[in-house]
Prior knowledge:
alpha+beta; Peptide Methionine Sulfoxide Reductase, Chain A; six-stranded mixed β-sheet; two-stranded antiparallel sheet
Amino acid sequence: MHTLYSILTSLLLNLTLSGCSNPTEQTVVVDPKQALEQGYELATFAGGCFWCTEAVFERVIGVKDVVSGYTGGKEKNPTYGQVSYGETSHAEAIQIYYDPKIISYDKLLDIFFATHDPTQVNRQGPDVGAQYRTEVFYHDAAQKEATEKYIAQLNSEGKYDKPIATKVSEYSEFWLAEAYHQNYYELNPGNPYIINIAVPKVRKFKKYFPELVKEQYQAEK
Length: 221
């Protein structure tokens, strides 16, 4: 992070997190086969800080669960400290377990692209570095085709002043983030980053896609 706001935010976050976890906490690989056996499908997105993206997709109808983690890199067992300081080739990302009978992959793409800036390269808002890049990790040929088609359409429509920077890559391994990162938005509502960065993204989702908000979140401010 290079801006004054980012530095101050980082200091506040460090204070907030200093007593929350053991930095050597072991991470594990999520097995996509378990979700598939239960009838769910997987979508894997990187769009900046996973506190934000997780909170957005937890509110989407048809989404069973969302987990935060790291993917897109070569390193095994990455930690938050390593990833957040740019010491790996991983991105902060989320794994979405969704019911395709209720919510389509195309609709998940709609939400993903609408709730972050897909034109920013190796950053998202105040968070700077390749670990905050915008990237879609496809699980099959259909997801790859749908994502590439969606990006081509956005570029052809000229919706943004800059070309879409979102990478489209084949999914490999997904490493769960440390326990204190899971459901961070819900568990830390007073965190300055949540208030100033994550809440506006959640509100944007609810404004643009009111029909897709889970019932328990509809009255949420």
